[in-house]
Amino acid sequence: MNYILQIQKLLIKRDMLSSPSDRIALLKQAINLADAHNDVEWGFDLRLFLILDEKDTPHCDESFPAFTWILDTFDKHPDTFDESDFLWEYKWMIGSARRNCSISLNQVEAITEDYKMRLERNGFSLRPYYTVKAHLAMFLNNLDEARKYIDLRNQQIKDDMANCRACELDDDVELELRLGNFDKALAVGNDMLTKKITCGHMPFSAYCGCVKYFRQAGNMEKAYEYFLKAEEDLNNLENDTSLIAEVGELVRFLTDYDKDKAWTFFEQYVHWNVNSDNYFDFLFSLSVLPLLKGETVRTLDVKPSLAWYRTDNIYNLQEIYDYYSDRAKDLAEKFDKRNGNSFFSEQFLEVVKQL
Description:
68% helix
């Protein structure tokens, strides 16, 4: 039983750390111990812990194989585990699959239907299932379909598997903003935007959405109002690198509003994008193109983990622009091929033609 004591010691160390990457490294050690001793119960719980910690990073490298193991182990030992223990995490896995352009839409839809089946057989409402369907519709820019699924979501009861009210309101706000219904978006999301109700990422993510769509509409005053709110919240989310796409939107806004500050943000957060999921990588790469265009050489204080890092800190900005432009263009083409439309390439071309 000595290995259990070793696992417990690793968990105690994990609880003392704030960096998700450091916590994941300890969990992987613990998982290896559990697997070496064929302890499926510890292996099950430790993998759930790993998924929880990796949720606060911009990638899903460890969680996919961990969750596949959980599903396979449950299906082999249904009397040993409670299926409801991992249905919450299943939503995150579906989101990660959607963001990975190498996973086909058919696969995403099959995973989603498997999730639906497991919800139903455990007596849960389909509210989270329709939420997942709405997310995919917005991802594909099928906004009428997204509205349909949000309406279906609202017809279902709220239970322990439903997203919190703040997260649901974030979906509502995003849909209205994308449809150009700005007043309605602010009215619908008022309780979340004014922090009467909050969640881990909310209202930060919603503030960044407001920054994006008000900027696109040319209302820089309103965009700045929400930038200030987002900036204040970001100070409390410094360990959550999963927010790299939202931070990219702040960089994009600052490029037009306060370019010196945009460079400060870029230097501080650009390393968050290293090894990020395809969708996050696309959004961030697209967001920084306007900042990188127009200058030639600049001294930057950035992390060595970046592919374009230089030890002398002096950078040819055209080279960095080309790096992110190539990434955005390549990912746009891959997503469009996967999705069967041109939505991602349209976003890329819209940015590039304005530079």
